[in-house]
Design brief:
Helix content: under 10%
Number of strands: 33
Strand content: 35-45%
Largest sheet: 6 strands, mixed
Oligomer: single chain
Distance between the termini: 46 Å
Number of helices: 4
């Protein structure tokens, strides 16, 4: 289909950026200020149009939508257990909401339109308030018309700080995104088109860190950085790499894990995934080291660099092995023997694989039983049903405190990033039949693979479950469940 190829070629400017040694100074702090604060203590965020220099300072600006006109929006920070109060003012010409991705928060604050709240109409506002129980890296983003609104830039970072700060010299947020741009730099307006929905979702040809064309991070030798990395793309799975450095994974999806070294510094991040790295800057003063992502063609694309100060090291030698981050109060005891166990097949899409497996058979869209999704748009299904994530009956109802085990089985030709709201889950390690030593809220389910996950349903309310490849979600791979 014209204008929406499956694998987008890199632009000439991006290829040049891979080999260029040009240094551009970037102030990482500019996105870390607090938002406007109202008299009643609410931080006020405005969802509104603005522009961003996605292609670098020498190219024209790109019209975007952002929180306070920025993408990413302001980085919000709050201490673990303290109340966060945010007022979202909708200055767009369409409805919107804010979802607080990965947070175990009260159901009414989850930000799912028609399930937990009414959409925020143009010119209106909504007050979100909750006390995050978990310290970690989270993010906030639109959950209304997401194929368009997320692709236009409506997202930002939320950092919930530990009560006792870990031993790092600097704490930096890196939000990686891809943008589908026209030659003039404007965002290509093919949101939610049939081709994207049938295939891998909306993939952009222009990749940024913090909406910068090439992000340079200034470091001193023997400095320790905490890098909080978030994949904010609509659909792209990133292979993210910090070259020439030992990258210690300290947390996944906001939850602490046993410190472990990422092999070759590579992280595989689905849309919505987060990883916290501790990175010791051990190269010599004046050194340069690339930060790269895969280009979907077997190569790498440089999206940033660690740029070493030419002066003396910060300290004589690197810090020692880091201590694990403190655990969050997640109910860790999984009662597998008495769990509610469900098979959740993932069906649909293009490329001819399993085209007839949906409810009622057939070869085209609409072959699945549906709730809220028009027949011509029923391209994907979760557990045999193509739904919006708020229409129809719940996929299951479970008593509060009971363990739930889900077996996500991918019977399609594309990977899926399955995201569960309001809870974190363990992932089964098939090689040992034991649980992997970390918590997730989003798991990659590769083609012809199954991933078994389990969690304690301790958070009452109506919760969404969906593929975080946003175009798959919009075309039916969504559901909701209820904890009573």
């Amino acid at each position: 289909m014209t204008g929406v190829p499956f694998l987008h070629p890199l632009t000439r400017r991006r290829l040049l950026a891979c080999i260029s040694a040009t240094v551009t100074a970037v102030a990482l702090s500019k996105r870390s200020f607090g938002a406007e604060t109202a008299a009643d203590g609410y931080r006020v965020l405005h969802a509104r149009p603005d522009t961003a220099q996605l292609r670098g300072k020498d190219a024209g600006p790109t019209p975007i939508w952002g929180y306070d006109g920025m993408s990413p929006g302001p980085t919000l920070r709050v201490k673990q257990g303290d109340e966060l109060k945010v007022r979202l003012v909708n200055d767009l010409d369409q409805s919107t909401v804010v979802h607080w991705h990965g947070l175990r928060l009260p159901n009414a604050m989850d930000g799912v339109p028609f399930l937990t709240q009414k959409p925020i109409e143009p010119g209106q506002s909504f007050d979100y308030h909750f006390a995050p129980p978990d310290a970690g890296t989270f993010w906030y983003h639109t959950h209304f018309g997401s194929s368009e609104q997320l692709a236009r830039g409506l997202y930002g970072a939320l950092i919930v700080e530990e009560r006792d700060a870990p031993q790092v010299d600097r704490d930096l947020m890196l939000m990686v995104d891809d943008w589908r741009l026209l030659d003039n730099g404007e965002i290509q307006p093919s949101f939610g088109n049939f081709h994207d929905a049938m295939m891998a979702g909306r993939l952009g040809q222009y990749i940024t860190l913090n909406s910068e064309d090439t992000l340079d991070i200034s470091v001193k030798t023997n400095e320790r950085l905490r890098l909080r990395i978030v994949n904010t793309a609509n659909s792209r799975i990133f292979q993210f790499r910090t070259a020439q450095h030992v990258a210690r994974v300290m947390a996944v999806d906001g939850q602490p894990c046993p410190p472990n070294v990422a092999p070759n510094g590579v992280l595989r991040l689905a849309p919505g995934n987060r990883v916290d790295l501790f990175l010791d800057a051990t190269l010599a003063p004046g050194a340069r080291a690339p930060i790269t992502v895969d280009d979907l063609r077997g190569g790498e694309l440089q999206v940033g660099r660690l740029v070493y100060d030419a002066g003396p090291p910060l300290r004589d030698k690197p810090l020692g092995e880091p201590q694990p981050l403190p655990d969050n109060p997640i109910p860790a005891k999984l009662d597998v023997a008495n769990a509610l166990k469900l098979d959740v097949p993932l069906d649909g899409g293009g490329m001819g694989m399993m085209m007839g497996r949906g409810m009622g058979g057939g070869m085209g869209p609409g072959r699945f039983q549906g709730y809220g999704v028009p027949p011509q748009q029923r391209i994907w299904a979760l557990a045999g049903v193509s739904a919006t994530g708020h229409d129809g009956p719940p996929i299951f109802t479970v008593a509060r405190g009971r363990t739930v085990m889900l077996n996500f089985a991918n019977r399609s030709a594309f990977p899926h990033a399955m995201h569960v709201h309001g809870h974190h889950f363990r992932q089964l390690d098939p090689s040992s039949e034991g649980w992997r030593p970390y918590w997730l809220d989003t798991v990659i389910v590769d083609v012809e693979r199954a991933e078994r996950v389990a969690f304690v349903a301790d958070n009452p309310g109506k919760w969404m479950m969906h593929c975080h490849m946003i175009e798959h979600m919009a075309a039916g791979m969504a559901a909701w469940f209820q904890v009573t």
